[in-house]
Write a structure and sequence with these properties.
With about 170 residues, this protein is an alpha+beta fold. The chain has three helices and eleven strands. Strand 7 and strand 8 form a beta hairpin.
Amino acid sequence: MQARWLTGSLVALVLAGALPAGAQVLRDQARFGTWNVQKDGPSLEMYSANETGATIGVMCVDGQSCSVYIATRSRCENGRQYTGVVGADQGFSDHTLTCRIVGDRFVYVLSDFGRAIRSLRDTRQWGVAIESAAGTTQSFRFIVSGTRDAIGAMALIDKATQRDPRSEAMY
């Protein structure tokens, strides 16, 4: 039922001209450039994968709590904080990332949502280098397109579900 509601809502938004003409509406998600946007119950997510299978994404739950994350198979210690450097077209910035284990994936959540989403919003290349507990560095690189459209779609879906998003930095 949720999938049908999302597809119907996205089709209506595309037809109304609210979503870009290039948006591809799929069965239970929409695609904007390299990004997939989907609604699943109380969560709304946009995500994009790189050639190694790592995923960068933005997850919002109940329209109030949003996070930028990197999901990978590279091991990290659940709950541990790691230091990382994000590189984007606009430059570099340091970030704290917290490891969460979700199924067989290791998810690094960037602590400063506002800075993370701003670095993603206007870039074509985005990468992060994360220092491991052993002192080695692992890095992940993503080529992204359609980011502003995907963020805009999340904002429209949020409004269509009449939730009150609390993260101004997102929109």
